[in-house]
Every structure is written in structure tokens, then in C-alpha cells.
Predict the structure of Glycine cleavage system H protein.
Amino acid sequence: MKFTEEHLWLRIEDGEDAITVGLTPYGVGELGDVTFVELPDEGDMISTDDPVVVIEADDDAVDILAPLDGEVIEVNSPLTRAPEVISEDPLGDGWLFKMNIEDVDALEELMDEATYQKYIR
């Protein structure tokens, strides 16, 4: 897994060219209880730092920014009916979207787990 300063995790799926993106448990804890999520559309082309997801939690709305350049290939659409899953299982069923990335080498610029743990302390 790789991590961003914006508290996203990125997991390269075995046997897939895609990465799965979600919010870290720390990031979820900073937001509070998630009550609403607006996901991107499959096929959307996104660029690093573009607003790609909107999450409402504890009466606050937050834009989640794209971690890398690429194309959204799948969204976790059940979250629109049960956004609380993001809070309950951020590393599992609470994933946000999958994307194909344009530059695989860009993953190397992101934090590994040990670096991320130091970052949030």
C-alpha cells in the first residue's frame, strides 16, 4: 500500500493494472461519522489534486482530491446508499474507487506505511 498526505491509501490489486483508493482510518477519524458520499463517474479522467469525491461527515463537507492522474474505472456505488461503511471499514468495504494510472512510477513518490505512520504522529 501507498499513502498520501491527504490520508488516502492506494492499493495495487494483484493481477490488475488498477489501483484501489480509499480513506485511511486516521483520515476517517479526522472527519467523524460519514453521512453522505458523492463518487466520480466511471470513465472520468482525473488529474492529481482534482476534487474527485465529496464526503459529508459531522455537518462538514470535504473534497477528496485525486491522488494521481488517470481514469476512474470502477466506483464503490453501494457507498451512496450506505456511506457509513467508509467509517466502519475504511480499509475494506469502504474503498472509494478504482483507477488506471497514467504513470506507474508516480506511486514511488507516495509514502509507504512506515513513513505514513510517522507522518500522522
